[in-house]
Amino acid sequence: MKQFAKRFLPARSLASLFSSDVAIDLGTANTVVYVPNRGIVLNEPSVVAVRVGTTDVLAAGRKAKEMLGKTPESIIASRPMRDGVIANFELTQSMLRHFILAANNGNRSLFRPRMVIGIPSGITQVEKRAVEDSAREAGAREVYTIMEPMAAAIGAGLPVHEPSGSMIVDIGGGTTEVAVITLKDVVFCRSIRVGGDEMDCAIVSYVKRKYNLLIGDRTAETIKMQIGTVLDDGDMQEMEVKGRDLITGVPKTIKLTSIEVNEALLETVSSIVEVVRVALENTPPELSSDLVDRGIMMAGGGSLLRGLDKLISRETGLPVTLAQDPLLCVVNGAGKVLENLDFFKEALN
């Protein structure tokens, strides 16, 4: 058997028989894992629950998210990723190890896997090293990082390898990234730490300010997803919202309209539109002409906010297209890179 392996299988091919290389979108809101030849095998909220004083995972993903704000003093349920970067190294490491094991159906691989991980373009070297160290501690033998807007562009099907300009707007939970790409490299990129979480905070602040009602982040997220909009298009919707009255201290229910949510999100959305405008102003003329025809591609969970694509199109004068699977663009792109490392080596950091 050893002679057969030596004659017919390179070392890397032999290792791949016993390990599952993975591509990971380690996002602020969700962690998604892609395995070659299997596709997406895990898509869970980036939340982990541990017992106080330990890093032993009691729950991760959806089960841990259900515990947020509801745990006894002996258990901590938290989101170890903030603004697209690691806020708690040990918890991120434990969560990542748990997810990789779950992606392999609980089986531990004979060989340590290779990993391709999407990272924000505005990440510092210290933050990047924390991601790489966390992946190695979680079991990786080789770690490759790729800028999230590049991965999102590849996952959305943009021709990033061609000598023509493509623009991607990736709105995640913690960051918004706008990039102009050509020949498998980034010509201009701008990242701001504004995303879905910031929108949720804006809704919490608005309800608190206007109604003296305290609501949680999960309630704000539900409001955003159900009646959130950035355009006053006459299609008013409303929703019952429950929280704690800050004056009386007792539970209270109000009705919130989509017009009010629009008002709450105005400042956050303006920041996103402004960063798109800055990217366009810094795009070389020849690539700008390509964008007139090709337009802008939007990806990430935040791009699903109702009316956001129309608003950006109206403000820029360019056609705006929503990617087919906005939430999965980064991990799908990272997966394609993992399967074709030699072809996409210029795209790696």
Give a concise summary.
This protein has helices at 2-8, 11-18, 62-65, 89-103, 125-137, 148-155, 196-211, 217-227, 258-281, 285-294, 308-316, 329-339; strands at residues 22-26, 30-35, 39-45, 48-51, 57-60, 75-78, 81-82, 85-86, 114-119, 142-147, 166-171, 176-182, 185-192, 213-214, 238-245, 251-257, 296-299, 320-322. The chain is an alpha+beta fold.
Number of strands: 18
Number of domains: 3
Shape: flat
Which structural class matches the secondary elements? alpha+beta
Provide the low-confidence segments as ranges.
Answer: 1-18
| CATH hierarchy class name of the largest domain | Alpha Beta
Distance between the termini: 38 Å
Return the string of H and E elements. HHEEEEEHEEEHEHEHEEEHEHEEHHEHEH
Q: Features of this protein?
A:
349 residues; alpha+beta; Nucleotidyltransferase, domain 5; 3 domains; 5-stranded mixed sheet; 39% helix; disordered N terminus
What does this structure look like?
It is a single chain. The chain has 349 residues and is of the alpha+beta class. The protein has three domains: 157 residues, Nucleotidyltransferase, domain 5 (2-Layer Sandwich), CATH 3.30.420.40; 88 residues, 2-Layer Sandwich (Nucleotidyltransferase, domain 5), CATH 3.30.420.40; 70 residues, ATPase, substrate binding domain, subdomain 4 (Actin, Chain A, domain 4, Alpha-Beta Complex), CATH 3.90.640.10. It contains twelve helices and 18 strands. The strands form five sheets. The protein has a five-stranded mixed beta sheet, with helices on both faces. α7 runs antiparallel to α9. The longest helix has 24 residues. It is flat. The N terminus is likely disordered.
